[in-house]
Specification:
The structure holds three protein chains of three kinds. Chain A is mainly α. Chain A has one domain (63-262): MetI-like fold (Orthogonal Bundle), CATH 1.10.3720. Helix content of chain A is 76%, strand content 0%. Chain A is globular. Chain B is of the alpha+beta class. Chain B has two domains: 36-51 and 80-238, 3-Layer(aba) Sandwich (Rossmann fold); 245-357, OB fold (Dihydrolipoamide Acetyltransferase, E2P), CATH 2.40.50. Chain B is built from eight helices and 20 strands. In chain B, strand 4 (65-70) and strand 5 form a beta hairpin. Chain C is mostly helical. Chain C has helices at 3-29, 47-53, 68-99, 103-118, 121-132, 137-144, 158-183, 187-194, 199-227, 231-236, 244-250, 258-287, and strands at 32-34, 40-44, 54-56, 63-65. Chain C has a two-stranded antiparallel ribbon. A two-stranded antiparallel sheet of chain C has the order 3-4. The longest helix of chain C is centred in the first third of the chain and has 32 residues, at 68-99. The chains are: A mainly alpha, B alpha+beta, C mainly alpha. Chains A and C meet through helix 2, helix 4, helix 5, helix 6 and helix 7 of A and helix 1, helix 3, helix 4, helix 5 and helix 7 of C.
Chain lengths: 266, 358, 288
Amino acid sequence: MALLDTRARDIRNLPGVGVTAALAVAFLYAPILFLMLYSFNDGRSISRLDGLSFRWYRAVFANEEIGGAALNSVLLAVIAASLATVMATAAALAMVRMRVRRKAATYAVLNFPLMVPEIVTAIASLIFFSAIGLGLGFGSLVIAHTTFCIPFAYLPIAARLTSMDAGLEVAAADLYARPLRRFALITLPLLAPGLLSGWLLAFIVSLDDFIISSMLSGPGSTTLPVHIYSMLRLGITPEVNAVSSLMVLASALVVILSGLISRRKT
Amino acid sequence: MQDHGDACRLTGLGRTYGRGASAHHALGGIDLAIRANEFFTLLGPSGCGKTTLLRLIAGFDQPTVGEIAIFGRNVAGMPPEDRPVNTVFQHYALFPHLTVAENVGFALRMLGRPRTEIAATVARMVELVGLEGMEKRRPDQLSGGQKQRVALARALAPGPKILLLDEPLSALDAKLRQRMRSELKALQRETGITFVFVTHDQDEALAMSDRIAVMQGGKVQQLGRPEEIYEAPANRFVADFIGGANLIPARMGPEGAVAEGLGTIPATGTGGAEVTLAIRPERLAILPAGGHQPGDLGPLTVAERIYMGNELSFRLEGAAVPLHVTLPRGGLRGALDFAPGDRVALRPEAGAIRLLAS
Amino acid sequence: MKLHRLLLAPSLGTILIFMALPIALTTLYSVLTPAQHGGVIWQPSGEAYVRLMFERDIFDDTLSFNADYLQILGRSALQAGFATILCLLIGLPTAWFIATRPPAQKSLWLMLVTVPYWVNLLVRTIALLLMLRDEGPINGALQSMGLTDGPLPLAYNNFAIGLGLVSSFLPFMILPLYAAIERFDFSLLEAAYDLHASRWQAVWSVILPILRPGLIAGGLLVFIPGIGSYLAPDILGGGKTLMLGNLIGMQFQGSRNWPFGAALSTVLMSVTLIALILVARRAAREAA
């Protein structure tokens, strides 16, 4: 008896999709892995491996300029992500839990930074800060980064809040909890995973930025991507590979962290 | 049963959503007095306003008009956290990040009671609902029935004057629901707290309540003891909603109500008035059409025989509306059986026919 | 003030003051006169927009048509468009594959696709350049296999920029498509088969129409950052082929003509907003 070939009819097994997916992933990863491999090169070349060593990592750690830029980047990302998370949390509470007039327009404003091309944000900020006389430097960077981080923090926080049962806050009121204690004891702890993923997303987005920082950073407030870019004037060196690899490592850590959080939240 | 003062008095209570043409009157002009220590049930189909009423008493929503007094105190504008009532929510609303003990002790903590008192009360409540040993668990580690008990214990722990229960049994399976009915009733008797219970399940309401308010369209249709509601429904809606009834249109004649295809039913009333006869399906005997006695209804034709295990039911045609008759199996009446096409007559039990204004 | 206004005020205020206002100011700057070393003189001038299409003779002030800047604009749109189509061709099968895996594999694949998005874009672009260089591993492999005599010109051209755009924004295409496919009710397919559709007919007439919102979202997420992209043309194009983003950037660095940069940026912002509004209106019409 001939069996009906259900596999051939099952649309989930369209020919070629698996191969395409594998190629897509290879296309995304191969350059990064190649770069990381060459960061361990013992020689000065970036096209010929002369044995493996941590030579260029030692050079990176010994380089005070790189260290300073990295510190600036992390400090900037921490401050911007924290400010954006606080503001986004307040906004999400209003949008999800309260009656807001002109909700669609408010939502559009909250997401506006996502719709503006980065280069436009960069030069608009430059024009604005020079017009109001606030010089370039760390202060301008903090303001600009906080602004474009708000929607990135907002989206996961609002999503979490939407999926939370509003009935729990009602139940807490029924059990004699006043508004502030309701927020502190019920809303905030349940919202925590959303807050953390919102903060991490904002943190990484701030760390990732190059164009806006390059337009706004003054002397002494150079961020790591801006510094790496300036290193490129001398061509790609194993040192560039090493510091880039460290940034890949940092990103991977953040992804793993946020993956663990989202797994724990259920 | 020493105190028969009112636990909760509702006066002219109304709640309207929206304004103008699109306004929805969820509740209109409710006057009710819920007595202390009673098990009071709000019964009605979904959308009848029973949950709105409960939310108004709890303080989750504010009335458009009217007053609510709890033990003589007007609670207008008072937020839920200031009202001496607690709620068992339909889907329990247990705090997922807190343990069973923390959930049960939550209200006492909010009220600033000392630690030792909280611990003692929690232990007592956990024992009361039979959850000893589960104190450290979180809600997602509990079964549906256990969550239900935690919700009960949590609402009882602060010693509310009134306990509001919003369809608390609806999420449980049939067997567990039966058991929880008796437990809830026992708990109410033990604690002496006034229970206000919301349900759409008439069996639940009849089995547990001291008094029932049947609601429909934002109004109370009938208020009374379970027996009164079932035996003497006040109107078509109550007769149909509670237990189901044959509702037969009739017209008042000189000797009684005349119903098409059934004959004359002795009754008094204004001649020519349109009325409705309500007869419960289980209060009719079914006989072969031959032995017709005065007072019997019919003759009618059997259209369908429906076997339902513990009972046998027939659908009869020949009257203005199809009639249903239900016979318990195995009893004396169960000895008789009919097939579609048989001609039969109906003999109502004494007092079984209720005359309702149309 | 009502509580919800108080809660919304910081975010809305920050975005309006530090994002919307600067963009409005940029539009204003685009009709001012450039100052010698950056900045502006507060004197209205349409020169920046004239310059988009015409060249002014330095001696007699006559205008002659000059398509250089329009070409850059067109090339940017074309590059971004090609990248969007390529992302779609790669992204749709990939998203389909991921969404139809069993749950455990699904989250692994999803993680694999998401991680590159979290890696710094500058780093990713440098890494791609390493691959494409004449001395890079691709040319190395081709030559050692004897397939080519000399290195293929993979880097520093439009091809490299296009590849850079695809690798930069591919995750943006895959994720919304994945979300759309994930929500897809596969019993609709069984219904299509039951109604005598072949497999490809089912894909064409059932799946694609249902996935369209996801396709549009993904397309926008690639096209918008693509048309204004800065790093890919700068690093992978080797400064030989400009795109709009670089041209704008230049006006604020070397050549310093702020009003012209502001005008270009206003054009880019307008293109972006028009695309977004068209899509939003279409979505609203379909919802109605």
